[in-house]
């Protein structure tokens, strides 16, 4: 038995037909029937039985099919890995980016990577850092931008950006002229937060509870610039990283340093410690690490 036999049997089962399986495999029907017959003679068991115009797996056939799926997946992974080792000019990367990081840090990074590797496709999923971590752990993404701290047992990572949260308020707010605001002073405020897909959502709620209150949440959004606009319309106050605050219109909102406690905002590029990673994804990690390391030294 070899890998082709598993492929042929799987196709026959998938199509429930020798003829259709032969067409899918670009073989003739007599050829695929002869291959299966030779395999049955080799193994000393029947794989299929015919019931009228239909075919059915025997117990031995069911055993073969139950093992064929994982074996064929491993074989496909082996072929992909060998291909990646040889040809870096092809491939794809499944990348998760939070909206805040996407607009602020990655357009130029992606442009430079594309210039160097024009045939590597980058398939982006834009979502909150919490959802990105979940997708990484489920194997739905190769790499993703996550909010520190992350699970170091599951993920390897390097730091992209280190920042801290600031409070943003409408200009007419009584605290708008303050340079610093303690978190406890915001106990009676209406909060505008990122939605629950974002790690900052839970982080802010947790920090508020630590200083003695549950935040009164009036709105949630997935877009930091929209949150800024809602604050400017006097719908509530919010907390955003200083990097984002610098991009808001100072005529519409004021930003103050958050203290007691300081809430850090650190973005890491993360990927699973276990499991196969394509050569293209490895090159992305190497490329972005070098790029952000150089930027941090400036």
TrEMBL record:
<dbReference type="GO" id="GO:0003677">
    <property type="term" value="F:DNA binding"/>
</dbReference>
<comment type="similarity">
    <text>Belongs to the LysR transcriptional regulatory family.</text>
</comment>
<dbReference type="Pfam" id="PF00126">
    <property type="entry name" value="HTH_1"/>
</dbReference>
<keyword id="KW-0805">Transcription regulation</keyword>
<dbReference type="Pfam" id="PF03466">
    <property type="entry name" value="LysR_substrate"/>
</dbReference>
<feature type="domain" description="HTH lysR-type">
    <location>
        <begin position="1"/>
        <end position="58"/>
    </location>
</feature>
<dbReference type="InterPro" id="IPR036388">
    <property type="entry name" value="WH-like_DNA-bd_sf"/>
</dbReference>
<dbReference type="InterPro" id="IPR050950">
    <property type="entry name" value="HTH-type_LysR_regulators"/>
</dbReference>
<keyword id="KW-0804">Transcription</keyword>
<dbReference type="InterPro" id="IPR036390">
    <property type="entry name" value="WH_DNA-bd_sf"/>
</dbReference>
<dbReference type="InterPro" id="IPR000847">
    <property type="entry name" value="LysR_HTH_N"/>
</dbReference>
<dbReference type="InterPro" id="IPR005119">
    <property type="entry name" value="LysR_subst-bd"/>
</dbReference>
<dbReference type="GO" id="GO:0003700">
    <property type="term" value="F:DNA-binding transcription factor activity"/>
</dbReference>
<keyword id="KW-0238">DNA-binding</keyword>
<dbReference type="GO" id="GO:0005829">
    <property type="term" value="C:cytosol"/>
</dbReference>
<protein>
    <submittedName>
        <fullName>LysR family transcriptional regulator</fullName>
    </submittedName>
</protein>
